[in-house]
Amino acid sequence: MNISTADRLQHTGEYYFSQKLREIEAMNQAGVAVINLGIGSPDLPPHPSVIEALNTTAEQPNTHAYQGYQGSPALRQAIADWYQLSYQVELNPANEILPLLGSKEGIMHISMTFLQAGDEVLIPNPGYPAYRAAAQLSGATPVDYDLTAATHWQPDLEALARRDLSRVKLMWLNYPHMPTGAPADRAVLQRLVAFAAEHHILLVHDNPYSFILNDNPQSLLAVPGARDVALELNSLSKSHNMAGWRVGMLVGRAEWLQQVLRFKSNLDSGMFLPVQRGAIAALGLGADWFEQLNATYQARREQVFNLLTTIGCTFDRQQTGLFVWGAIPAGYADGYALSDELLHQAKVFITPGGIFGSNGNDFIRVSLCQSESVLTAALERIITARSSAPVSSTM
């Protein structure tokens, strides 16, 4: 039978990493053993107390049933306490917090709840590809707004205000920014809140990197007036080494969260209770957890700086987050060319910046989610490949 796909998939391709991981896996099966420095999936475990909470709860006979769509009251209270302590943001756990099965699903839930054909969505370029895909699947039209090194990867709101914004319903933000590592700027966040209020735009701030190599964690909801125009996504994937656990949250205005719940409740049946108990333990960890975590990432980042210098890339040493963003050296058409060369000659995979938008074409992104020994091995492979390459080769 010839079964056609839905029109909504017309402009939505398979996620880049889904495709690339198949290529890397095929190389691995052929005996190549690629070193993957591409994906930001933490290689470190959660805190032992988190594992203990998961196991203890899972051993109880009455903890395996369906759970509530809004998560347990204890989890919502733990999130509220975490936001108060970490960001000085007060949230009502009864109706201003919606736990999610990872914040990525929240991107889709928000898009399907508020967007439809005829709406426009402001998407950062470069930015997380899921924003664009979710907009397209909702039927809305993605509209890029430029982020560049010249503006320190912050939006040019004056330029945006000069375009027709009458159909723009939603604007995606992400600070600390992925992939560039640009930190949140309080003054810029304040201007964004004022911009959204003036143009009647819903801001959605995606905030999973605020604790990684960042001394000043910020929430958009801490900005005066933000609750009237903004929602915020957050996650334990990066900050607590729980990527596979799929624990995220959407916080903000109660009536907006209730509308998102209308959509979400038709797609899942709640979060496994032992996972919720593990998340509660994670949210209760003190500052020493982040100090230890960031000491590890700091050491790894220095190694990545060395690797990028060896390749000939330039970069900002002050960037934050789980990755390092580097400008490619002269002689390459784009980051894809450099990425492919490293993969096939040195057997090291580094993400091309172009997957995040056209403004990323001249960049690459390196993950910090590999041990120091693996990063050392990657550097050694690159040095060996460069020394053995023909003189005419860029490598």
Automatic annotation (TrEMBL):
<keyword id="KW-0032">Aminotransferase</keyword>
<dbReference type="InterPro" id="IPR015424">
    <property type="entry name" value="PyrdxlP-dep_Trfase"/>
</dbReference>
<dbReference type="Pfam" id="PF00155">
    <property type="entry name" value="Aminotran_1_2"/>
</dbReference>
<comment type="similarity">
    <text>Belongs to the class-I pyridoxal-phosphate-dependent aminotransferase family.</text>
</comment>
<dbReference type="InterPro" id="IPR004839">
    <property type="entry name" value="Aminotransferase_I/II_large"/>
</dbReference>
<feature type="domain" description="Aminotransferase class I/classII large">
    <location>
        <begin position="34"/>
        <end position="382"/>
    </location>
</feature>
<dbReference type="GO" id="GO:0008483">
    <property type="term" value="F:transaminase activity"/>
</dbReference>
<dbReference type="GO" id="GO:0030170">
    <property type="term" value="F:pyridoxal phosphate binding"/>
</dbReference>
<dbReference type="InterPro" id="IPR015422">
    <property type="entry name" value="PyrdxlP-dep_Trfase_small"/>
</dbReference>
<dbReference type="InterPro" id="IPR050881">
    <property type="entry name" value="LL-DAP_aminotransferase"/>
</dbReference>
<keyword id="KW-0808">Transferase</keyword>
<dbReference type="InterPro" id="IPR004838">
    <property type="entry name" value="NHTrfase_class1_PyrdxlP-BS"/>
</dbReference>
<dbReference type="InterPro" id="IPR015421">
    <property type="entry name" value="PyrdxlP-dep_Trfase_major"/>
</dbReference>
<protein>
    <recommendedName>
        <fullName>Aminotransferase</fullName>
        <ecNumber>2.6.1.-</ecNumber>
    </recommendedName>
</protein>
